[in-house]
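Crash report, auto-generated. Payload:
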Amino acid sequence: MSKAVQTAVMGVTGYAGAELARLLVRHPRLKGATPVFLGRAEASRDAKVPTLGEIHPHLHDSHGTGNLPVEPFSFELMEDLGVEVLFLATPHELSRELVPQARKRGIRVIDLSGAWRLEAGENRAVYRFEDEGSADALQMQAEAVYGMPELHRAAIHGAGLVANPGCYATSVILALKPLVQAGLVEVEHGIIADAKSGVSGAGKAPTAKTHYMYAADNLSAYGVFGHRHTGELLEQLELPADGIIFTPHLLPIPRGILSTIYVRFREEMTSAAIEACYARFYAHSPMVRLYGTTLPQIQQSVRTNYCDIGFQLAKDGRRAVIVSCLDNLLKGAAGQAVQNLNVMYGWAEAEGLE
Amino acid sequence: MSKAVQTAVMGVTGYAGAELARLLVRHPRLKGATPVFLGRAEASRDAKVPTLGEIHPHLHDSHGTGNLPVEPFSFELMEDLGVEVLFLATPHELSRELVPQARKRGIRVIDLSGAWRLEAGENRAVYRFEDEGSADALQMQAEAVYGMPELHRAAIHGAGLVANPGCYATSVILALKPLVQAGLVEVEHGIIADAKSGVSGAGKAPTAKTHYMYAADNLSAYGVFGHRHTGELLEQLELPADGIIFTPHLLPIPRGILSTIYVRFREEMTSAAIEACYARFYAHSPMVRLYGTTLPQIQQSVRTNYCDIGFQLAKDGRRAVIVSCLDNLLKGAAGQAVQNLNVMYGWAEAEGLE
Amino acid sequence: MSKAVQTAVMGVTGYAGAELARLLVRHPRLKGATPVFLGRAEASRDAKVPTLGEIHPHLHDSHGTGNLPVEPFSFELMEDLGVEVLFLATPHELSRELVPQARKRGIRVIDLSGAWRLEAGENRAVYRFEDEGSADALQMQAEAVYGMPELHRAAIHGAGLVANPGCYATSVILALKPLVQAGLVEVEHGIIADAKSGVSGAGKAPTAKTHYMYAADNLSAYGVFGHRHTGELLEQLELPADGIIFTPHLLPIPRGILSTIYVRFREEMTSAAIEACYARFYAHSPMVRLYGTTLPQIQQSVRTNYCDIGFQLAKDGRRAVIVSCLDNLLKGAAGQAVQNLNVMYGWAEAEGLE
Amino acid sequence: MSKAVQTAVMGVTGYAGAELARLLVRHPRLKGATPVFLGRAEASRDAKVPTLGEIHPHLHDSHGTGNLPVEPFSFELMEDLGVEVLFLATPHELSRELVPQARKRGIRVIDLSGAWRLEAGENRAVYRFEDEGSADALQMQAEAVYGMPELHRAAIHGAGLVANPGCYATSVILALKPLVQAGLVEVEHGIIADAKSGVSGAGKAPTAKTHYMYAADNLSAYGVFGHRHTGELLEQLELPADGIIFTPHLLPIPRGILSTIYVRFREEMTSAAIEACYARFYAHSPMVRLYGTTLPQIQQSVRTNYCDIGFQLAKDGRRAVIVSCLDNLLKGAAGQAVQNLNVMYGWAEAEGLE
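Recovered output after restart:
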């Protein structure tokens, strides 16, 4: 048996980082090499490092994950331990900084931030990256593969830098790609993606919007005509700039995304034809579950790495409502990152994800 | 001062009936005549009648509403008491039965069910009314006024039968009517109304879908391309049959509706022009709050009779996202019923509603 | 008719302050004099002052409360306007500072903080007041009346400084006082008060504990053997230091407190005798609702100023479980403050509270 | 390697049954023999049997558990398949009926209902079993072992009938047993167990109490001085009939139990001594996590099979508050049932549970 792959995770204090830690520790292919968990380097290396269980009490256990230390970030430590793959669950600014350094050292990176997902400058503009246009940035952008295995399996397999997709973007792209690529959708008409996400999508920082009193018993739309994930939709679906309206909403639930998507078809369709189009596209994609004309619900995909897709066709055969659900922390973040790891190493795509 | 108007409410066991009871008991114009509460007639008139507080513990109080009896339904009782206005918070089948009888006795009716809201037979089909086409039914349909004061104030003032609008319908119609009536919306393009409602909208009967475990931490779409309120949208907005796609969702909150509505304009618009259009239309409508380009949230209208409306315009000036919020039990049901009562008697429209 | 009483509220940015603003604006006895809302004085007096609706969007309305300005705190302004009563919905440190100044100017104060509730130094210790023992502090402590009308009606009527009780304390004291004062409870045995509160009790500041992800789908105990409200229980119930164990819990709901209280009786009791004891004590207290042997639930008192009390007696007649519910922002804070105002001016105790 | 153990589960339609199905399908020791799922026998054997995924959409998947059939209950089928262990996730009446039949056929049974948990007739009285006193019932009662491995590991290993404990009972017994058995607790003083459970504990049937509108934003106590689990507490902790007051509450969360337990010690204790007592008792119990003087929270044990225990000691060293948390569907039901299976077969106690 070959040597186990040594992985590291930078940024385990957030929700996605915690999920990633949980998944990697239990991953059957990584049994021989405990993942290394890394946090901000500010803490002196002499100071007592916290354990994962101290940071995330729900990962506390008598004998496993919870006792693993969270070391200050250091390329030296990674070199010493022979880290092959580095996961970044960090803010995008930090990913812009760390990725070029990691690549120079030959470490493969799976970056969960929005730092390297976008090809077109006008789509990246919303992030206001400070290193925009630098040699490092240009090279990384050229190298980065959009980490959605269902669309880019082969490229991910050989990739040095995988840009793990946004949670909303995953739910909308997977629902639309088969139909759009088959040329069925009248894209000139415009697509509507009305998406709703649980509060974990808003991050762990306590803010006015993540306060229980704001989120509970409420629903609010935000980022209308300007959410960062819009660029991913445009690029991956190859849509014109006004080809889709994407409206996120904050749901009073901990986790889960449901996107309700409205398309017009070029020609009259049947439900069977639509089902067949999806089935063909996802024939070899174990992490997409097709519901046919039944509509999935958030509860069914939460705590799984599945993206669930169903639809309903209008009587005229020209208009459809597509509903797509996933867990924003799994298929929308940490789970998809592990799926990408599996693809990079040629393992079964669902390993460690069920 | 003139004699107080005697009112009665049939069907106080449900959520809308309870809100109605609460509002009528406290209504300043009804002080001289305690509203009569009525329930199913099956119970023998000799049996001890329950009090409102026994049916709705939250209406329990030491000295007021909670002690009022809920009498078995009876036209004789209403006649004895001189009931002028009967509110029906009953299933639509029962409203179809009771309304013609009430009208023959000269009682004015505000019906909260879907029984008399629709003019066109094809829109009514979804209800499968047993008396469809009967003389009584035809007469009631002719007489019924759609009870949305912002659209039909004058007709409501003189009406014998007011068909109180559906909760979803209220939120969508109020958001769209000013723009559609002004001819600004490209209706041929199709409008999308993606609506989300709290669980009280699903009624008080314990069912698989109202079970806490189904609704909590979940979101689900339902009634796609076939919800009963669609007919109200088509008729009140005068749209062609395929002019709007209306998709309701079940939100994990007790009450409140948020509708996210997508329209295309015939010509390039400015936000100011849209604001002006709304302001003109609702200049004399105290129960609509205009948020301009700020988007309202569910929490802000819950437990009020307001419908809150805001919007965002795309840079191209041709596409807009409109967000409309209201409390499904108040502006979406009992509150609007009281608003209609106020209009019928020429009282200030917001009386008893603040 | 006499001149309207001019009131002011300092600290309207928090949840209790917002409720207070809402109640005072609608209070029938205050119609002639709009309450003055005050906030931190840091903002220059020249700067545009925010409106209440800007601070609390749910108080936004087209024509009322929402448009009222929130002025920087100033005794001069209060003097100019003839403020008679000042409500303080401020942190206790600030109340310690402002109250002596207000009293010197002859303004009557209703303080919602914990600054002046406690008589015994050992109970105050947990607050670590900086001015402990100063002349001003001693005088204010001597003057302060514990603002629970059901216990101290007469003293509140004439009081210059009313220390509005803590939310938990209100729920526990009202449930126990009648039984303890009648000598029925075996206090040496020890009383247990297991209390649960909604998240608004934790304040408006975004913290790790008020984050939706922490509070939702969770329950946690805190402040065991050390919560600040314990001193209020000891003093108002005249218990020895170890006479009660009070354990608060954070409930995943926006508002409401339920306290489950365990007592042992000196002698065998009947339910009827217990009911009679409560009925006697609260005969003239309109804001306490007695449920007898039915147990109240949080939903029934939320958004009311009632404290609901019920109990169950063990077969041995010696042990009882008492359940007491109230809304932490109303009877537990702003509502009780208004009730105290009513008592101070000799108005009906429930005025403006129904 | 020995032949795989063939298991069957009767009653997979409920929440505990669904969890059991999920756990058994993934259990590493059961890989060679797919568990058999059984439902009510009423359905004709010819009729198409439903799949697990049809009954529980969240168990829907493309390739696994969801496609397993749910056969009508039949001992013949079990005999044909060589079922060794039958899990009953059935109402207690049905368990009383099926268990004697299964035992006569030599099938080992793990019964999740309350049918066989209690030894003393006075504790069983609350269930009103129809077969009380019959020869079968007496024999089964004699044979039944209370299925809490932490207390009865050896007896469970050889048991033919394991009575899986109640969810509340598990949380209270595990928190108290070490201290009570060591003689530290002054049981004559009386113990208080104030317990709070999520809604899944109330079962899958839609009722007025499981309606979202009843449970959400609410908290209610129930079953005071009469809950069925009380007998388990008395027997397993060997307490006198009035030795404990157990008060359950319905929490607005899907799953999880938190019990706040109040004890008085015979002598002055230190926290260290209490910690040592727990540590000794649970030294070989992998499914109990000891938090020392930190208090566990519901979120930390939900979706695990752990029971988390922490405590706080009063300054007098005589009174303690113990907090115990678990997932009512796992350690409180299906997880503990699998733990019992592991003990019965001498496998590692935590297998298939992490």
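Post-recovery validation: Chain C is about 30% helix and 20% strand.
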